[in-house]
Amino acid sequence: xxxxxxxxxxxxxxxxxxxxxxxxxxxxxxxxxxxxxxxxxxxxxxxxxxxxxxxxxxxxxxxxxxxxxxxxxxxxxxxxxxxxxxxxxxxxxxxxxxxxxxxxxxxxxxxxxxxxxxxxxxx
Length: 123
Ligand SMILES: [Cu+2]
Hints:
The chain is an alpha/beta fold and 123 residues long. The chain has two domains: 1-39; 41-122, Immunoglobulin-like, CATH 2.60.40.420. Helices cover 30% and strands 37% of the residues. Strand 5 and strand 6 (85-87) form a beta hairpin. Copper (II) ion (CU) binds next to loops.
């Protein structure tokens, strides 16, 4: 009978420890998520026939970046083929790789479409 009590107490102890580990792990993951979403660097880029303003954005390696695209005359968007990204209203990325990444217009918008270019610089 005494042995059963000890086993029962051990179970309760293990359960309490697991609960503590689980809840503390959950809290820190939640805090991390909140922090990272607050740390996103936002840039507004105007897209027009046939260019971007600004046409160069410079960020630091490791930054979380959101480029918000304001299509001023018709639908343009941004496409960054070297990063496999494209968006009409916004492009989001983690700038994990250093370098210069050229972007292009994401939608056929007229004769100057192919000349529409910009640059994301990660240093
Ligand atoms: Cu275009």
